[in-house]
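W.,

You were right to be curious about this one. When I first looked at the sequence I had no strong expectations either way, so I just let the prediction run and decided to look at it fresh. Below is the sequence, 164 residues in total, followed by the output.
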Amino acid sequence: MGTNGSTMLKPLRQGLPPLDPAAVSDAASCALPARLEAVREARRFTRCTLEQWDVGDRFDDICLVVSELVTNALRHAVPAAPRGGEVHPSVRLHLMRWTERLVCAVRDPSHETPAPRDSDDFSAESGRGLFLVDSFADSWGWHPLAGRLDGKVVWALFRLHTAG
């Protein structure tokens, strides 16, 4: 594909994935506490959910992208919890499957635009999350929340190549 590095990471648009929410065939979501250990919980939830859905050869891609989106939300979008204070779930993971598509969406309380870190150091441990999302998902984007819900949703869409 002929995308160059500078344009690759702009989300396709600010908006929702191009799917009809009414036609969703399966949906699952879980609230995650505002601490980095919640990434493990998100991975476990995703694996358990995907094992019940037919996602064909996209299983590992989806698990990886969920990990990156949740890590990003927890690392960059959630205010640090006070020491010993009550940690309220402020990140929510949604998985939605249509016949030939799956969307994972992560809601967080921040209004910041998700943006990759400018880094030429490809051995760096952090800052690569959105590059991975862009590489493994078929498309991704984000949109601010309206109404009573504060923050934004970052989503990634996968085409499913299922048998039958």
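Here's what jumped out at me. The longest strand covers residues 101-108. And, maybe more interesting for your project: Residues 59-77 form the longest helix (19 residues).

Coffee later to discuss?

I.
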